[in-house]
Structure formats: structure tokens, C-alpha cells
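REQUEST FORM: STRUCTURE PREDICTION
Request ID: SP-0412
Submitted by: Lab K.M.
Chain count: 1
Length (residues): 148
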Amino acid sequence: MSDVAVLVVDDNPDHRELTRLALCECCDPARVATAADGADALDYLFGQGAHAGRDPRKQPRLAIIDMELSQMGGLEVLKAIRAHPATQALPVVMVCTSSEKAELDSCYAAGANSVVRKSLDYEELRRKMRRVYEFWVTVNEANRNSRV
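STATUS: Completed
RESULT:
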């Protein structure tokens, strides 16, 4: 998958699959990759572990990361992305269940480009993911320094 547009990171298989399905309505399903946890996401992005051989110079246009990942939390993943030269310019949308100011502030302080509240209603999720995709992948100009 060298032409991945979006990487979805969520440890809840149902949420991950529903988000993937919503995004697949916007683009070719082959352009949506998923990771079941933060470690797998970082392996994918850095081309290591199970994703050894993937060219880390070719990054997705967007990462959508659940804030409430187990083991390695979403903020830890975001901080690791921002700390690595190959991924520091990657747009990241954090997904959280809360609208608490402190939680939102922590996402932005760690380097999130956007925060979206998680939706349990599939129709609302579809609308949100379409808007996220349309802005970050089709409207927003990619940071050319971060792409091959």
C-alpha cells in the first residue's frame, strides 16, 4: 500500500472497521490502512516490525488516531509521530469521546491538527469522516517536504 491516503488507528475493532467503511465511501478502499494499536501504527509509519520494507518516505496524507488506545495511548502515538523527521509534518486528527477542554488542549499541545468527537451513530460518523477526508486529503495542500 504505497499510495495510502489515510491511516486509521483504533484498538476497538468495531470502531476501526466502521471508520474504515465510512472512509471507503470517499476513496478507493486500498487507500485506507488500519492499525489495531499505537505500536502497529508506528511500525507502519516508520517501516519497521511487521511493516519492514514499507518505504517510510511515503507517508499517508492523514492519520486518524483514537485518543483512548490501550497500551500506548493516542497522545503517546501522536508525540512519537511529531518527534520523528519522517512523520513530523503528517496531519493528525485525534478522535476522542470527550469534549472536555483539558483533553482537547492536551491533543493540540501534543501536535494534533484537529480533534473530532467520536460518534456512536454511524450516519454521523459517515458525515464526519467524509468532511475530514475531503478537507485533509482533497482540499488541504500536502506538505511537500514530507512527501516523496
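NOTES: The radius of gyration is 14 Å.
Reviewed by: T.R.
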